[in-house]
Design goal:
212 residues, 8-stranded parallel β-barrel, alpha/beta, TIM Barrel
Length: 212
């Protein structure tokens, strides 16, 4: 699975676009993963939105993930779910989910990353890597040293989320992240597709040994 550019939808920081419109534009710019995230919607509305996004992502090779809600992810046909430390345990989600279903987990340290891997996570995300205003409840950033430590101690894919933008992508990739998850750096741009394309090119450039 390719997790290089992982876009998290947010209708509250964009320019009036819906989750589905954000997904479509991000995919046009090269997004590898779309995560539906909305803590204000009812379950019924999340499922409705998720089914629309699923229709968009299945026309490409884009992975579709639902934040927090395994029930919603399964109901709308998503490829996977992303769980926080306060959500359902990874091993319990793995028992419920069908074969091939992707489970990602937000982690804050090596211990949580190793536990997520043991319990069946497909990838872990250091959250937040840097301090961010997009998720005010996320707390202070854990930094690049923690990202390196996690990458050294697990065999699953490691991505970085939180406070990531074009100015620090090079450091994040150099620290071992396979990809970056962003909200405001893309969703908050006036041209979502162009912002996604720019970040995707930077990630590829950094992985090839260049500098942003």
């Amino acid at each position: 699975m390719n997790y290089e550019l992982y876009i998290i939808t947010d209708e509250h920081i964009d320019f009036g676009k819906t989750h589905a419109e954000i997904a479509e534009l991000a995919i046009a710019g090269g997004a590898d993963v779309i995560q539906l995230r909305d803590k204000s919607c009812s379950s019924r509305e999340l499922i409705r939105i998720g089914r629309v996004i699923h229709g968009i992502t299945r026309r490409s090779s884009t992975i579709f993930i639902v934040n927090d809600r395994l029930d919603v992810a399964l109901a709308c046909g998503a490829d996977g779910v992303h769980l926080g430390q306060g959500d359902m345990r990874t091993d319990v989600a793995r028992q419920i989910a069908p074969p091939g279903f992707i489970i990602g987990v937000s982690v804050r340290n090596v211990e949580e990353a190793c536990r997520a891997e043991r319990e069946g996570a497909d990838y872990v995300a250091l959250s937040p890597t840097f301090s961010t205003g997009s998720k005010p409840d996320a707390g202070p950033g854990h930094g690049l040293d923690m990202l390196r430590e996690i990458q050294r101690n697990v065999s699953v894919t490691v991505i970085a989320i939180g406070g990531i933008h074009r100015g620090n992508i090079g450091e994040v990739i150099a620290a071992g992240a396979a990809g970056v998850a962003v909200i405001s750096a893309v969703v908050g741009a006036t041209d979502i597709a162009a912002a996604a394309r720019d970040l995707k090119n930077l990630i590829r450039q950094c992985k090839a040994g260049g500098h942003p």
